[in-house]
Amino acid sequence: MFSLKSSRRTVARTVAVALAGAACAATMTGSAEAIVNGKDSTQRYPFMVSIPVTAVGDPTLKAVCGGSLIGSEWVLTAAHCVDPTLVTLDGTVRIGSEWKNSGGTVRSVAKTVTHPGYKNGDGSFNRNDVALVRLNHPVTEKPIPIADKPGRPGTPTRLLGFGTVDDAPDSTGWVFPDRLQELDTRRGAVSECAPGYADHTRLCTISQVPKAMACNGDSGGPQLQRGRDGRWELIGVTSGPGAPGVRCSEGPGLYSSAPAYAGWIHKAMVRNG
Questions:
Q1: CATH architecture of 156-259
Q2: Domain boundaries, the chain
Q3: What residues does 123 pair with on adjacent strands?
Q4: Would you give the end-to-end CA distance of the chain in angstroms?
Q5: What is the pLDDT of residue 188?
Q6: Which of 6, 215, 235, 265 is positioned for an S-S bond with 150, CB 3.0–4.6 A?
Q7: What is the pLDDT at residue 78?
Q8: Residue 176 pLDDT more than 70?
Q9: Beta bridge partners of 182
């Protein structure tokens, strides 16, 4: 959400906040608690996708975004996760594994499609922060359906991601788990995020666990709710913090509403299939 500068520290902060902080360091692995103060995944999420990226301007700063499999060859993620001014894709994604670097199915990226109205927030929130990744070949993992609409404020939700366990302000303090993390949250009211941040396209999200929220490395990943049949359905795409100048653990979080963009998503998949 910040404009990209030349120094490593500024690049790190750019990627941290603009990616809801995507990041990883090859020598760093996390503890059992991550997102920030989440927990190890308690079930299989075959639709979960990890997307390795590298920060523009600093090839030593490797990163990861999340995504959701919404079709046999389509992944929904955040637009800033494929923004060429911020990152370059490493060329492959991993689908359906609870482990960041093993298991599941690996596919190459055939194409990315960014919402035409996407705008990086440059210190504020991102607008129209959704994008699609088309895989080079279909996968057998089961996609997640997009909900018809998000539940009302107070509805229980769940976040997934491989993000840092420590929301340190500098990338040298970030610690990343190998295993997928989950966090129970709820839909927040518009008023629970900073003024102007949340609306019908951007969902305010509040942790049900103290000092916890998605953070560096979780961008693009899913926010889930239970459908009428009790199964998970997709309502949100991790976009960034729900207020300026707060650490991840202080929340709230801001999520692009998948139902709000369902029309664009369908049309884009048809045009680019």
A1: Beta Barrel (2.40)
A2: 8-25+40-143+262-271, 156-259
A3: none
A4: 30
A5: 97
A6: 235
A7: 97
A8: no
A9: 39, 160
State both tokens at 138. Answer: 């279909």
Best CA proximity match to 183, nearest among 165, 216, 150, 209: 209
Per DSSP, helices labelled H in the chain are 8-18, 262-271
Q: Omega of the bond prior to 259 within 30 degrees of 0, cis?
A: no
* Residue corresponding to tokens 């103060």: 37
Tell me the average pLDDT across 156-169.
78
What mean pLDDT is predicted for residues 50-66? Answer: 87
Separation of alpha carbons 111 and 268, rounded Å: 12
For domain 8-25+40-143+262-271, give the fold: Thrombin, subunit H (2.40.10)
218: three-class secondary structure by DSSP = coil
Q: What is the Cα–Cα distance from 19 to 182, expressed in whole angstroms?
A: 18
Closest of 111, 103, 119, 96 to residue 47, by C-alpha: 96
Q: Residue 157 and residue 235: Cα distance in Å, rounded?
A: 9
Please tell me which residue, 28 or 65, carries the higher pLDDT value.
65
